[in-house]
Amino acid sequence: QLVESGGDLVRPGGSLRLSCAASETDLTNYLVRWFRTAPGKERELVGFIIPANSPVPAKTVYADSVKGRFTLSRDTTKNLVYLQMDSLKPEDTALYYCDVLNNRGQGTQVTVSS
Q1: Which of 47, 61, 102, 109 is 20 to 30 A from residue 30's alpha carbon, by CA?
Q2: What one-character DSSP code corresponds to residue 41?
Q3: How many Cβ atoms sit within 10 Å of the Cβ of residue 38?
């Protein structure tokens, strides 16, 4: 079971860190994707982080819309995947959720507004 947290109301230019936690899965060995959905918009793949033991040097991939502002990372000791979001814009407003093998959590709401 995946559980996202960290969503909040934040002003443009602000930052948030979202967390993805799994109760029965070691996230370290899985590709973890972050998606976002917003009313009237198609679901967007924000980015993904590859398994920690992968030999591929590029560990993370991001959508062009968030590249340079969002950062994915892992805390293997806590079995968490983080989505650090900086320089937030109103268009980042969405429900964000993580996904492992097409299993997802309920999401966490991010609202960027002044």
Answers
A1: 109
A2: S
A3: 15
